[in-house]
Amino acid sequence: MTQTTVNSKQFNPGTMLVDGASEVLNFVNGKFVQSRAKQFFPVMNPGIGKQIAKVPLSPGIEVDDAIKIARSAFSSWSALPIKERAQVFYRYKVLMEKHFKELADLIQEENGKTAVEANAEIDRAIEIVEFAASIPQLAAGEIMQVSRGVECRVERFPLGVVASITPFNFPNMVPNWTIPNALVLGNAMILKPSQFTPLSANRIAELLKEAGLPDGVLNIVNGAQETVEALCDHTGIEALTFVGSTRVAKAVYIRATSHLKRALCLGGAKNHLILLPDANETMAASNIIASMTGCAGQRCMAASAMVAVGNVDHIIRLMCEEAKKVIPGKNLGAVISAEAKKRIEGYITEAEQQGAKILVDGRNAVVEGKQNGFYVGPTVIDNVQPEMRIAQEEVFGPVLSIVRVKTLDEAIAIENANPYGNAASVFTQSGGLAHYVMERASAGMIGVNIGVPVPRDPFSFGGWNESKFGACDITGKSSIEFFTKLKKTTTKWNPESKVNWMS
Ligand code: NAD
Predict the structure, then answer these.
(1) Atom of ligand 1 nearest to the CA of 168
(2) Which residue among 108, 128, 154, 212 is buried most deeply as judged by most CB within 10 Å?
(3) In the predicted model, what is the mean pLDDT of residues 101-127?
(4) Quick check: is 65 in a domain?
């Protein structure tokens, strides 16, 4: 067996060559280490349909090893003043900016996004790190004289070792949703990245080490189901965050909480847009198509179903023109795998067979020079019935289903009936109608004339219903609640004042 450590300058970060093939390493105690896994998962470049590495499906024993290291690192890390911990993240932000292109290239390579989308992902990740560096201002405790000579104070304490399990669709940003905030607040972490996109995570670990993060505070154990289950079951993990599909989010939430952990599990989505006839035509058309096609529709905030109220044909015509400007391999990236392409195209064909009308058809997309890439073109489908599978399930591809209704109340009823609740948007020029929807939509994040209503820090990110299990949100101010516990201390130092209990 030949072993050569490949550092990030030679491209794939945190990998080594084993018999000529690139193998992803785990990151434990500040070092990249080879897993003892017997099973591996192929890491593909979806844009060209070619394998670029293999990632270990690490066994439970390696989770246990990493947790021991993290627990030992936690005691000294959590003892540092919070402002000192935040300094690491100022330096990390500077390093992210310095290596911006390399980080974005890595996303393109393992996820298949366009350069514009990969750059936007890094921009957003940097913004989150800026928020994390400001957490000391928000995490200060409180103190009050509650009675004569008696003071109560409340202070935040870290939880211990937390686990973060992330999906494939934002290989850099979603790990950065949890790492900076959890660590500034004094926790140590085990990160389990998606087996589809493990490379960005290893580069994050390298940059954090360069920024001065002590060894063992962040550890990465690669894998899939078995690795995640080991994290859910382990008594050394105090809290766990999960971002991924609803099916797995539910299972992970149940398993982690049954082991008495604090858990926050973000699931999938079926975001509804309500289009009213008075909407600004060009703004609505471009926003809706950008929401549905951005990141090839692989966003938990993507527009997936549009409820068209009354006669909006003039806007739908414009939307189709906009959709035709989105070209696979140019301004539309690949979907993550051959299976994902097959699944997405299957939804379209089934809807067509059930009587829906395909206005723009993205099936069988081929990109010249990238014939093996996993591309699906933008697809707009009209006359979708609310009971069709394509109207109910998360498609996770650049596909928009249009459901026609006569009234706004019918549109709201359709939005409310879907089991998910990540985002909902309304397009109108009427403040009153917008407000009517803002009050009634059953989703955690609402957009008015915005197709991707992602709240930016310090506002937090999180859905409702089957899009999120657990209390708190994963970013912004709300994450401070999730990643800390409160200590309440009551003091009395003046024996001369009237002495009775809580005088
Ligand atoms: P996924 O659920 O397949 O995988 C997510 C993570 O769970 C990965 O790390 C994976 O290894 C692990 N995993 C997979 N199967 C498992 C199992 N049976 N038991 C334990 N762990 C398991 O999701 P994905 O395909 O990587 O990501 C796409 C999904 O994530 C979409 O549904 C999307 O909507 C959702 N998502 C949600 C948000 C949000 O904020 N709500 C954000 C991004 C993505």
Answers:
(1) 26
(2) 128
(3) 98
(4) yes
| SS3 category, 475 | coil
Backbone angles phi, psi at 477, to 5 degrees: -60, -40
Q: Probe ligand 1: pick from 228, 247, 298, 344, max atoms within 8 Å of CB? A: 228
Residue 120 included in any domain: yes
pLDDT digits (tens, 9 = 90+) for 276-308: 999 999 999 999 999 999 999 999 999 999 999
- On whether both 15 and 164 belong to a single domain, the answer is yes
Query: What is the Cα–Cα distance from 156 to 228, expressed in whole angstroms?
Result: 28
Q: Are residues 351 and 440 in the same domain?
A: yes
Of 390, 152, 425, 142, nearest to 279 (Cα)?
Answer: 425
Residue 471 three-state SS: coil
CB < 8 Å & 24+ apart, contacts of 383-391: 383/355, 383/356, 383/357, 384/305, 384/351, 384/356, 385/354, 385/355, 385/356, 386/414, 386/417, 388/350, 388/351, 388/354, 388/356, 389/347, 389/350, 389/351, 390/347, 390/348, 390/350, 390/351, 390/356, 391/305
The residues assigned a catalytic role are 300
List, edge to edge, every strand of the sheet that includes 423-427: 357-360, 379-382, 399-405, 303-309, 271-275, 423-427, 445-448
Domain of 315, in residue numbers: 271-419+423-448
Beta bridge partners of 360: 380
Residue 291 domain flag: yes
User: Among the atoms of ligand 1, which is closest to the Cα of residue 232?
Assistant: 20
Q: What is the position in ligand 1's atom list of the atom closest to the CA of 467?
A: 41
Per-residue pLDDT tens over the stretch 318-367:
999 999 999 999 999 999 999 999 999 999 999 999 999 999 999 999 99
Residue-wise pLDDT for 358-409, tens only, equals 999 999 999 999 999 999 999 999 999 999 999 999 999 999 999 999 999 9
Unique residue bearing structure tokens 């197709």:
451
Global pTM value:
0.96
Ligand 1 centre and the CA of 39: distance in Å? 20
Tokens representing residue 70 in the block: 């993290």
Number of separate domains in the chain: 2
d(CA 447, CA 440): 13
What strands, in cross-sheet order, belong to the sheet with 218-220? 31-33, 26-28, 218-220, 188-192, 161-165, 239-243, 262-266, 468-469
Tokens 């979907």 locate to 335
For residue 104, the SS3 value is helix
Report how far residue 11's alpha carbon sits from residue 99's, in angstroms, rounded to the nearest whole number: 12
What residue ranges line ligand 1, CB within 6 angstroms?
Answer: 165-169, 174, 192, 194-195, 224-225, 228, 243-245, 248, 251-252, 266-269, 300, 394, 396, 422, 463, 467
Positive or negative CA dihedral for 137, 140, 144, 146? positive
In whole angstroms, give the CA distance from residue 402 to residue 437.
18
- 3-class secondary structure, 172: coil
- Report the number of secondary-structure helices (H) and strands (E) in the chain: 16, 23
